[in-house]
Fold this protein.
Amino acid sequence: PITDADARRLVADLWKDIVSWAQSVGAERSLGLFRADAQTSQTFGWSSDNKSVAGGKPKAPRGLEADFPPAEWAFVPMSDLLLVVGEGIVGISAEGLFADNFPGHRRFSYDEFYREVGEG
């Protein structure tokens, strides 16, 4: 799995750019495949008072804390985005993400890159 924090932040920004582009060209409907569903307590047959069986504590939606905001996206095709945008440069194996860099290459962190570019 791709767990590097900088890679995840980079793909999250890339996804935001793709979403805004899709909305600007009228292709937002195709993003519906990736959107999270809005589910209520009735979806899974919970009682109307939304109490758990043990302890009388309210059930948290999605198994998260009760005050955690709902997710907008159910799935973001992270590996697909990286492979399409970085075609010929970026690869993914069972060991994780890799790039075809020249010898002596110094890796920039996410924050260093955006300081250099002036965006973010």
Summary: The radius of gyration is 20 Å. The longest strand covers residues 90-93.
